[in-house]
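Hi F.,

I've been meaning to write this up properly since the lab meeting, where we talked about keeping a consistent format for the predictions we share between groups. The idea is simple: the sequence comes first, exactly as it goes in, then the structure tokens exactly as they come out, then a line or two of notes. No screenshots and no reformatting. I'm using this chain as the first example so we have something concrete to point to.
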Amino acid sequence: MRWWPRSGAYNLSGVVAQVSICIPAYQAGRYIRYTLESVLEQTFTDFEVVVLDNASTDDTAAIVAEFGDPRIRLEHNDVVLPLPANWNRAVTLSRAPLVKVLCADDVLYPRCLDSQVASLAAAPSAALVACRRNLIDSDGATVYSGGGLRWLLGPRTRTDVVRAIVRHGGNPIGDPGSVLFRRKAFDAAGGFDEDKMLLLDIDLWVRLLDHGDFVGQAQSLAGFRLHGASTTRMIAVEQKTAQAAMIRELATSGEYRVRAFDRLVGAVVTPVGQLHWNLHQSRAGLGPPSQEADLERRASVGASAHSRPSD
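Output, unedited:
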């Protein structure tokens, strides 16, 4: 007897989809409608959508159920999982050979999948492709256009990417919505490291490079939302410290052949990049959080679904 996957594993033609878009969702009722609408507006249509509701108590599940598109599969956790475990489970539930993890408050622009699937088809040795992205505010207005991928456009090797990370001082590749990766590379790399909450995406991007090359796209094909309740706001200081430690480790490892020049550029660029990021936050109407609000948000950070990108 043939095993048939559950509803949502197939595309509209009745065959396994080429792309899985995995959306980990926790208390995502405010924005998830916009996220799903952006997915369904893709010019590339051969995809499945796996929405993993992380035991939300708001109307997240009800909003997802309203869509009624057979490509959307709504899954549930019985209890709230920590963010890294939730992201891993979302990917585990997917079935396509190409995967994009999309936070439940971010958006894709219409040609995102079309462009990224074509890029990986043209570069069979690549494990992942990333595009530039816009920063958008809570209302969807663009705060900054075409950010990310400094020194990383076009085909790049693992050494190229690690050197760019050291020069950048943060995450030049960007957030998950900007990236499409091969599922076989994700499995071989061991998925998201659940012990590295603060480095969840950039840590995976580096490990994926053990299993293939990188392609950087100049087009801005996704939107990363800045708003007061995102994890971006909750963990900025801790994440900056964790990124600095990771970059020191990469810079001193002979495995990546990082040069003194790369370390020198990083020492200059990193503080400038932080000022640049603060400016974007300000343009989105986000000032420094109050101590009380910061403590309240930190209480829920383990279940939410955003990590800080950098330009």
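Notes:
The first strand starts at residue 19 and ends at 25.
The chain has eleven helices and ten strands.

If this format works for you, I'll send the rest the same way.

G.
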